[in-house]
């Protein structure tokens, strides 16, 4: 049981990251099409890759830290209840 609580939220975490990455890439593509002329294809591609990398890293790190915090709290609560500690 303790192992299941420690691994909580893994499916939600992966779904949220995929959804946020798709949203971020769609947003960046729309705005970069307006801001960067088509003749600057190299600059456009490099900027797009950099933005994609930044989005992936930031969303992954934020959700990882939030998930670890929530799972840590659940783990502590389970241990306290298991030992019959109330306060």
From TrEMBL:
Domain of life where this protein originates:
Bacteria
Question: In its keyword annotation, does this UniProt entry include Transmembrane?
Answer: yes
Q: Which UniProt keywords apply?
A: Membrane, Transmembrane, Transmembrane helix
Where does the sequence pass through the membrane?
12-36, 42-64
Its protein name is Uncharacterized protein
């Amino acid at each position: 049981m303790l192992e299941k609580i420690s691994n909580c939220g893994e499916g939600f975490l992966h779904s949220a990251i995929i959804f946020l990455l798709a949203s971020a890439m769609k947003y960046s593509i729309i705005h970069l099409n307006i801001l960067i002329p088509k003749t600057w294809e190299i600059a456009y591609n490099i900027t797009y890759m950099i933005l994609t990398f930044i989005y992936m890293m930031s969303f992954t790190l934020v959700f990882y830290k939030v998930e670890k915090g929530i799972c840590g709290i659940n783990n502590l609560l389970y241990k306290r209840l298991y030992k019959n500690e109330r306060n």
